[in-house]
Automatic annotation (TrEMBL):
Cofactor(s) required for function per UniProt: pyridoxal 5'-phosphate
Swiss-Prot/TrEMBL keywords: Pyridoxal phosphate, Transferase
Protein name: Cystathionine gamma-synthase
Organism: Sphingobacterium oryzagri
UniProt xrefs under InterPro entries: Cys/Met-Metab_PyrdxlP-dep_enz, Cys_met_metab_PP, PyrdxlP-dep_Trfase, PyrdxlP-dep_Trfase_major, PyrdxlP-dep_Trfase_small
Species classification: Bacteria, Pseudomonadati, Bacteroidota, Sphingobacteriia, Sphingobacteriales
């Protein structure tokens, strides 16, 4: 099946008892057993729930994977992967990460004796150089947040394979509509389903998709043992969101293309990050491993200090100043004080997260209204 058909149908069948076309919200914690241990595959909803199962199967189909796992947040999904590690293990990851990933690495798992090595993942040689006998995991985000650097998923996959290292790609910014890391050599795809997958800014959720059955069983063990799993209402909403993923992504990409063109030569814009420009360092790679350039754009404002940046960020009428991304509505975010506030100033400035950087999550409103809003706020 093709992507759009999978987005609407995968994992879902009419309800066998009533014929309900939409997967019901199975609002139940437990399931009747005919005799002890004799049940229909569902025992207790921390581990298994039919609404969540439909969502997981749909997610797996969209990422061309065999197994999907849904979590109560993207961070819960990340946490479950990190539980595969033991003290003394090393992780190679990007120097330009989502702030919450940086925080769980350095503030939660580092204290258990796991070492995190941060490198520029846009250069696979840097990843290779950082490999030691203790390296057990490579964790890559592409495009990165917020400066939209690209990492070559298959080149890093070859390094991971050569050294038998587990390889995870955080595919939140691209969504499976734009890129499928499992096809390019990743072992696990991680998502903050809060963003494009759900797409309506009304659910916090995470996901993992993978192909290897024994790895799936290990992850399922932590998923159930630790219990960061989502309830059926949220699973239902995310499943509904997925049905329009392809339509939304197309519109996000189209609006972003027009907005990027508007901002490129704007006198108030010093630098613009969007992989669709031929002078973006990841442009050729984006053309190779992504189907389009996505709905995220970051800009550095010309001659703006923190105060002026705050003033501009607060002036929007259609864009909403808020954390998060990937919803149908346009959002504007000041990474240095909002999403990346947990990263020390020197660390974030090294990778371009400066005080006068703003990140746009371009929504699917009428693009003329969005451009008018930008014009007015930047005037
Ligand atoms: C939001 C986000 C996360 C964390 O997901 P939550 O659903 O907020 O827990 C991880 N990675 C990226 C790239 C994100 O944007």
């Amino acid at each position: 099946m093709k992507f759009a058909t999978k987005a609407i149908h995968a994992g879902q069948e009419a309800d066998p008892t009533t014929g309900a076309v939409m997967t019901p919200i199975y609002q139940t914690s437990t399931y009747q057993q005919a005799s002890p241990g004799e049940h229909k595959g569902y025992e207790y909803s921390r581990g298994t729930n039919p609404t969540r199962k439909a969502l997981e199967d749909c997610l797996a189909a969209l990422e061309n994977g065999r197994f999907g796992l849904a979590f109560a947040s993207g961070m819960a999904a990340t946490d479950t992967v990190l539980r595969l590690l033991s003290p003394g293990d090393e992780v190679i990851t990007g120097d330009d990460l989502y702030g919450g990933s940086y925080r769980i690495f350095t503030k939660v798992y580092a204290q258990y004796g796991i070492k995190f090595v941060f490198v520029n993942t846009s250069d696979p040689k840097e990843v290779e150089k950082a490999v030691t006998k203790q390296t057990k995991l490579i964790w890559v985000e592409t495009p990165t947040n917020p400066t939209l650097k690209l990492a070559d998923i298959s080149a890093i996959g070859n390094i991971a394979k050569a050294h038998a290292i587990l390889y995870v790609v955080d595919n939140t910014f691209a969504s499976p509509y734009l890129q499928n890391p499992l096809d390019l050599g990743a072992d696990i795809v991680m998502h903050s389903a809060t963003k494009y997958l759900n797409g309506h800014s009304d659910v916090v959720m995470g996901a993992l998709v993978l192909n290897d059955e024994s790895l799936y069983k290990k992850l399922w063990f932590y998923y159930n043992a630790v219990g960061g799993t989502p309830g059926p209402q949220d699973a239902f909403l995310a499943l509904r969101g997925l049905k329009t993923l392809h339509v939304r992504m197309k519109a996000h990409c189209e609006n972003a293309r027009l907005i990027a063109a508007f901002l490129k030569d704007h006198p108030k814009v010093e630098t613009i990050y969007w992989p669709g420009f031929s002078d973006h360092p990841g442009h050729e790679l984006a053309k190779k491993q992504m189907r389009d350039f996505g709905g995220m754009i970051s800009i550095v404002l010309k001659d703006a200090d923190l105060q002026e940046t705050f003033r501009i960020a607060s002036r929007f009428k259609v864009f909403t100043l808020a954390e998060s991304l990937g919803g149908v509505e346009s959002l504007i975010n000041h990474p240095a004080s909002m999403t990346h506030g947990s990263i020390p100033k020197e660390t974030r400035e090294k990778v371009g997260v400066v005080d006068n950087l703003l990140r746009l999550s371009v929504g699917i409103e009428d693009v003329e209204d969005l451009i008018d809003d930008l014009k007015a706020a930047l005037a």
